[in-house]
Amino acid sequence: MTSLSPFDAALEGPRIMRRRPLVVLAWATFSLVMLPLLGLLAKMVLGEQQRLALAQRQSSADPREILDMVSQLGGVMVLLIMLALVLGAILSAAIMRAVLQPQQSRWAYLRVGREDLRLLVVSLIAWAAALMVTVIPGGVVALGASLLGGTPVAGWFTFLGGLTVIGLSTWVAVRLCLLAPHAFQVGHIDPRAAWLLTHGQFWRLLIMLVMVIVMCVIVSIVGTTVSTIVGAVIAGGLEDPIAGGPAASHPRLILALLANLLLAPIFLTLQAVIVTAAPAAAFRQLAKTEAEAS
Fold it and tell me: HSE-up of 226 (CA within 13 Å, CB side)?
């Protein structure tokens, strides 16, 4: 059986940051340019009421709320999601080139080609899989819990149903985690081949993904801390930077907001590097071992 080092794969992202800091900076600049453009497009195509409803909506996994939001925004929401997926596919393809094709370093590995299109399709497949194994089963559990509310079995049904959804979602996520690097490297999308590649590697891949999640949480905490410190230093200790009045127009407050806007894409890019590089490195390990065995 081929072997996989989950620690080595999970640490591929930090290695890229250490070895190619200028490339990572170029990716962060790409995000810094594209994310505001996406926000500007959203502001242009969404009405005032739609923007207000979207801003006030809290994050929720309730399928009824998600479907309600999509139905309210209609085709505009689909367009924005597709554009976000395209930008994500371009960045993911660049990160995978750095891992799987390090010699193709022109333009900081950023391209627009067939690899990006394949990764976009893989993103749609991942969304469809999440819908089938997480959103729909989660909705069924939520519906069953509401119908059984007040009965002795309601608690058990909710607990066991939630545990089943989590287990199924985790299993499918692990078995499909190599689909993107497999499609990128072999030149076509083959979910069955990518699924079979993970055979016998479930627990190693799960350890890798857990490490990836932990590192992303650490990056998020560091990013929030740095943004808070920078904002406090630049703002000069303003007591009420959110309220209206003279404080809201203070030049130092504007600089603090701009600093946070500049920092956010950087830390989001670091998280993207960690998330994308780990499965690519795992695929590289498994593909190399299989090639040597054959």
Answer: 14
